[in-house]
Design a protein that fits this description.
Number of helices: 2
Low-confidence stretches: 148-153, 155-170
Order of helices and strands: HHEE
Oligomer: single chain
Radius of gyration: 39 Å
Mean pLDDT: 84
Number of strands: 2
Strand order of the largest sheet: 1-2
Distance between the termini: 49 Å
Shape: rod-shaped
Structural class: mainly alpha
């Protein structure tokens, strides 16, 4: 097996490895995106459950207040009614804050998933670009290697003989 064939085989294997690495990294990023999407759904579901639990807790508190007012012989007018209204408003605010927090967290996770999907595409493309670069570098090395050179030529070769002289504008000359 000649050196050119070895170079060709190594180049092809390296290019294939670059493609495989890009595909593998892309697949990993896609899997991360799916996991983030699942986390977003779970986060929103958890927030909905917490919101419902908060509303039930507020309803229980309102019922307890009404029972205590009734036991004390107080009617739901004036201050007791204001206390009930304030309790209900605070409970609703807490429930909405829970929902909002869940939505914010879920949106953040979905945005991260979108970044991962974009990264997956870039990683796949990068793998193919690296493979192309490897193939071009191998072809370049093979072209110069087939002429007996390992680097690009730097210019014409010159040789000096005893009779060659360089003459300067001042009339001086050097051998």
């Amino acid at each position: 097996m000649g050196p050119e064939l070895v170079l060709l085989a190594a180049t092809v294997v390296s290019a294939g490895a670059a493609v495989a690495q890009g595909v593998q990294a892309s697949n990993a990023a896609k899997a991360n995106a799916k996991a983030l999407e699942a986390d977003a759904i779970a986060t929103q579901q958890s927030a909905r459950l917490q919101e419902q639990q908060s509303r039930r807790q507020t309803a229980r508190l309102l019922a307890t207040q009404r029972a205590r007012f009734g036991k004390a012989g107080v009617t739901l007018q004036g201050t007791p009614l204001l206390v009930q209204d304030e309790t209900a408003a605070e409970g609703e605010l807490e429930a909405r804050i829970i929902r909002f927090g869940g939505n914010v967290d879920a949106t953040s996770l979905r945005n991260s998933a979108a970044v991962q999907r974009s990264e997956a595409s870039a990683l796949r493309t990068g793998g193919f670009l690296n493979a192309g670069q490897t193939l071009l570098a191998g072809a370049d090395a093979g072209a110069f290697g087939s002429r007996g050179r390992t680097t690009a030529p730097t210019g014409p070769k010159t040789s000096r003989t005893a009779s060659s002289r360089i003459t300067l504008g001042t009339g001086s000359s050097f051998a």
